[in-house]
Amino acid sequence: MTTTAILVAAGRGTRAGGAIPKQWQQLGDQSVCAHAVAAFTNHPQISEVVLVLHPDDLKTDLWPRVTGIKTVIGGETRSASVCAGLNAVSDGTKRVLIHDAARPLVSRGLIDRVLDGLDHAVAAAPAIPVTDTLWHSDDGHVEGTQDRAALHRAQTPQGFHLAPLLDAYTTHPGATDDVTVARAAGLDVLI
Fold first, then answer.
1. What angle do CA 114, 182, 48 make, to 5 degrees?
2. Taking a C-beta distance cutoff of 8 angstroms, is the pair 78, 94 a contact?
3. DSSP H or E segment with residue 187
4. Crossing angle for the helix pair 162-171 and 78-88, nearest 10 degrees?
5. Which of 9, 83, 138, 148 is 20 to 30 A off residue 34, Cα-Cα?
């Protein structure tokens, strides 16, 4: 089944600090984004990689020039950038993996597990169970704790069958997370 990886790199990454967005900062001998791109371009089940860039970055030498990747301009929000990536996938694509280019250490095993999940579900996403104690607060004081038994920290890549996700974005745009868009449209998402 044809799968496209969409790497979202249009954000400005201001929370990370630094002179340039976090996806363009160096990690070893490459940018953070270059590490993420390599994970998908080197995966045998990924047919295509779409890199979504900020318009200012397209004019720079920051982003990795890798043969065969497609580049598109992102939007004002993450949601708009994902939509730009979705609209750029090649005909015949059946599944997409959406990954934050600022997450460089995605493993082949993680990509495999998300793809395996898509063999059994319309959407699949990795998550890490929350193990920290979580407090409720009021006016800067601890008021209680939150049961964490069913809580997870969302991760990427998040995988989807393309057609249902396109429909979800048409009817529920604007979320900061693709699983949130899918859930708002009534799609079941496998963790």
1. 45
2. no
3. none
4. 140
5. 83
